[in-house]
Structure to design on (90 residues):
């Protein structure tokens, strides 16, 4: 659903629950507002939980230039993995 959709449902539910005084036969606008607010809150919690539980892997690759000896060529390949969150602005 996303954060935007959750906030929209929370706002729409609050408007229906607290600001609308209309009588429609067979529908209670206040209850519909509370249901929309609950759905928005659950969606917001689930979205934030998924965003925080996701693991990010940073991979850095380094390759050294070949060192030429009389009859020998060497190359070096190094890969470093860190399982943490990159710094802000990354």
């Amino acid at each position: 659903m996303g954060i935007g959709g959750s906030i929209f449902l929370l706002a729409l539910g609050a408007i229906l629950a607290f600001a609308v005084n209309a009588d429609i036969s067979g529908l209670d606008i206040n209850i519909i507002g509370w249901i929309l607010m609950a759905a928005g809150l659950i969606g917001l919690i689930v979205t934030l939980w998924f965003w925080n539980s996701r693991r990010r892997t940073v991979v850095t690759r380094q390759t050294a230039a070949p060192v030429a000896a009389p009859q020998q060529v060497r190359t070096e390949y190094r890969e470093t993995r860190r399982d943490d969150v990159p710094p802000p602005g990354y």
User: Anything to note?
Assistant: Residues 29-53 form the longest helix (25 residues).
